[in-house]
Amino acid sequence: MSMTSTDDEIATEQDTITAIYKRFDALREKADHRFSSAIQPTQVSTPGGKLERNIRAQHFSERAAQLSAAEHGLVIGRLDLDHDEHFYIGRTGLYSEDYDPLLIDWRAPAATPFYRATPMERLGVRRRRHIHLKGRRVVRLDDDILAIDELDDDERQHLTGEAALLSSLQSARTGRMADIVATIQAEQDRIIRSELDGILVVEGGPGTGKTVVALHRAAYLLYTHRDQLAKSGVLVVGPNATFLRYIDQVLPGLGETDVVLASMGDLYPGVETSRTDAPFAAAVKGSLRMADVLEQAVTRHERIPPGSLKVTTDRDTYLLDEETCQRILDETRERAERTRQPHNRMRQFVAKKVLNELVRQEYERLDSVLDGIDIPLEADDEEDRDLGELIDQNALYREFRTSPSVREALDILWPELTPQRVLTDLYTDPDFRAAVTPQLSQAERDALHRADATAWTISDVPLLDELATLVGELDATINRAERRRRQAEAARSQHIEEQRQLVHDAYDVAMDMAIDEEVTMPVDASLVLERYHDVDDRGFLAERARQDREWEYGHVIVDEAQELSPMAWRLLVRRCPSRSMTAVGDIAQTGAPDSPGSWSEVLDPVAPGQWRRGQLTVNYRTTEQIMNVAADVLAASGADAVAPRSVRPDGEKPWAWQVTDDELADALPGLVREERVHLETGTMAVLAPRSRIDSVLASVRHACPEATTGDDENVLDAPVAVLTPAQAKGLEFDGTIVVAPDEIVAGSSRGYSDLYVALTRPTRRLGVVATGPLPDGLAHLR
Fold this sequence. Notes:
ATP binds at residues 204-211. The protein is an alpha/beta fold. Helix 6 crosses helix 7, helix 21 packs across helix 25 and helix 22 (475-516) packs across helix 23 (525-532). The model is unreliable at 151-172, 176-184, 499-515 and 517-539 (pLDDT under 50).
């Protein structure tokens, strides 16, 4: 296509894009106006009127938010079909004032050919056009001609949309993940649209788009299975907070907001931590053996005191001998196992058994007292009187129940526990730790010791969550929750008939909104009623789910899944008992010292027979020149893995620079300046071992004062980020300098994996600064 014809095509598309944005602005303004009107104070007093007001306010608020989120890159592309039909694909669906479709939502079935059509299977597509926008201006068009007769054998082997992929990757990164819906490969698309049930493992090496697949799958599932997921949402778990900041705008940009983004350190309410344990301690805590250790730790608190347990009240002193205490504990444990009740829930059962025993002993005492008193009987009393007629049994139970001594006895036999208390005892009390860890070696027990037990680490979060399941809520919390449950049930019963009547009003409102808002998806009346009735008393789904440890998500997506320990997987299964998950990762990139050798080793313990695998084989992020270096390191590591094929052969040659330790501080600023000149506006990272982060940052700041580290929440907005390989996982930069690769390799038993991760972060330029000998795989790099 000539320059003139290209300009003409861009101008033609610009006219269409301008018209689409004009309609977009009108719809957003209408939603904003209607939201403002809906929240104005009114004199509405009928239940139906209040319901309609709440529904409309919430709907228009969400609609305005969805439109705002979709504004950037609103139009993705265009499909030209056989028989001269065409339509546009975008981040949300729009209709004209005459209800003609202006934009097809990218997740709608009609948009499927935009991702799946190939020269071998055209799906009725004649041409696929990728439309690149800068703001609201068309800056470039990329066309894929899919008429098979026009392609030779070599062209048939090319990736669908490869030209658009490669050109998009030549543009500089902005610090946030490029939203590349328009360039999703057919290989990725099949995974994105895979069925909801079971665990789908998405395996792929660096640069294969695993994260893009995961995030777009979340949006697609929320769209396709809305009825199933609208009430439960989707949890996306990333490797660290920096990564979550990197992708936190992608899902809202696709129009989906019922998503919780979290790292493992955030998944226990009340604890937010980025602290890490030493590798050996983390491996011990992550081991599946800890499930038995924690169960034993809880049981260890259920104890029988030596000798008899003395209970003193205003009435008398009572003794609970060892046999009685053992019987109470045995009966309680048997019942707990049968009913699957946690420890704290069974305290009431223990209390009942103790009170029964005390009442029995009090009856015996009173009976003995009465036997020693000469009480004249009436003529018609031939037998002793029943003590039950002489004693108010309920009053006796109340008296014992409120006795401090009885409470002390309960605290000895069956104390109320919190996850924090049990884990603190395990970490700080060596005798307690030895008693509950017979399956651990002494070195493993010592690794669990920590003086400040409450300085929680990421590895502690799955243990706290496991303990929360074992111990349950405290009595006071249980009682409050039970009262709330009963009150809610009473309110529900009281208003059930009213709600049946209101559903008719909700239906009318839903239909009005579906028509007025020109949305591509009709609003279901029953969903509107259930979701928005008394909406002012409810928070948004993501906020509520984040604070509720027992929230059950409809789907969980895990990025860098190879890094999760067996105990972390147990936590995720509790968050999603249906085991509807997407696990994204690469076994070759794991940095954990106890890393699994296969996905079956990871998933069979938690989901036997319930997982399947999808593979991404093509690296479209990293240049061939960089990937060749990384592949040599992967081979040197001895890993049973093959680096993915890169489709970017036009990259720049990686370089290496040898300096001494003393020379590093002076050499690094100049190298950083030189790289920034080559990268122009692109992003850059300097990756180093953790032990060198502070000194490397100080040196880099001589060249770039705005440089910062992964501890800074704004690190992704900095022109140069100084990170460890672990902090850089899942991120990408235009250029990367790797410092002291030999120390990265020596830093852990998985050091070569860490180096492999570091080498595969850049998309354009890679440099290595060595202070020691280059590791195997890098020796030829000069």
